[in-house]
Write a structure and sequence with these properties.
- The protein has one domain (3-8, 15-225).
- 27% of the residues lie in helices and 26% in strands.
- The protein is built from seven helices and 13 strands.
- It has helices at residues 37-44, 71-79, 104-116, 151-164, 174-181, 208-212, 215-218; strands at 3-5, 18-24, 29-33, 49-53, 56-58, 62-63, 66-69, 87-92, 132-137, 142-147, 185-189, 194-198, 224-225.
- It has an eleven-stranded antiparallel beta sheet with strand order 6-7-4-8-9-10-3-2-11-12-13, with helices on both faces. Strands 1-5 form a two-stranded antiparallel ribbon.
- Strand 11 and strand 12 form a beta hairpin.
């Protein structure tokens, strides 16, 4: 059994405490910073992935231009320094049969998504029956995540916050959270509270680098919102 994994020093992992979220609901898309693959994977207990990008290769599990990651390799993948991969992208799989029988049209659309980092049309496919598409760069810094069920995003956000500060729970409705994220929401997870600020940008998808490098201009009292 031959496999290749990118070698390098594994950084000591600490959860990120600054979150940026923007939703584009009609595209099933949430742009995120501050949430990493291992947190996403643990939240949804993912078992199987079709890896489109990432330096994690299993020779016997290579199919088309992708790597099939089953539950035998999931723990190993979660222990990797995914941030160090640069680009990292996958669709989840309902079972191991789906990836072997992807129709040509769906395969072409997945390859398009692999290269363009956006769907050709819809991000979800009958053959994979995927719930998510995860398109990250420098994992934890920037990710475009497509959710079949939008409430799964709320589940992820609550998981992230409670895993860092267990005694804090969101106290606003799903609709209120979706409304806050439409133009951008910046959240700081502190030791005993959350600081959250509206961004209210006019353009479609913001530059995450500019947002996170200009926090002092966003974190002002008039932009503050109460989440708990």
């Amino acid at each position: 059994m031959k496999s290749f994994f990118r070698k390098g020093k594994i950084r000591e992992w600490q959860p990120r405490r600054t979150l940026y979220i923007q939703s584009i609901i009609d595209e099933d898309l949430f742009v995120c910073s501050g949430i990493e693959f291992r947190e996403f994977c643990n939240c949804f207990d993912l078992k199987m992935l079709l890896l489109m990008r990432g330096h994690f290769h299993i020779s016997e599990n290579s199919v088309y231009r992708f790597t099939f990651v089953d539950e035998n390799y999931m723990e190993l993948l979660k222990s990797e320094d995914i941030h160090n991969y640069g680009d990292f992208a996958f669709v989840d799989l309902e079972d191991s049969k789906g990836y072997k029988n992807i129709p040509k049209q769906e395969l072409a659309e997945i390859i398009y998504m692999q290269h363009m980092y956006e769907p050709f049309e819809k991000p979800f496919f009958p053959s994979t029956n995927n719930k998510f598409v995860y398109l990250a760069h420098d994992d934890g810094w920037y990710a475009k995540i497509y959710f079949r069920e939008h409430t799964d995003f709320i589940k992820l956000l609550k998981y992230k916050i409670s895993s860092v500060v267990p005694n804090i729970h969101l106290n606003c409705s799903d609709d209120e959270l979706f409304a806050l994220t439409e133009k951008g929401l910046l959240i700081e997870i502190l030791d005993d509270k959350l600081d959250a600020f509206r961004i209210d940008l006019d353009h479609h998808i913001c530059d995450v680098d500019k947002i996170l490098n200009n926090e002092d201009k966003i974190e002002i009292e008039e932009n503050r919102v109460l989440l708990y």
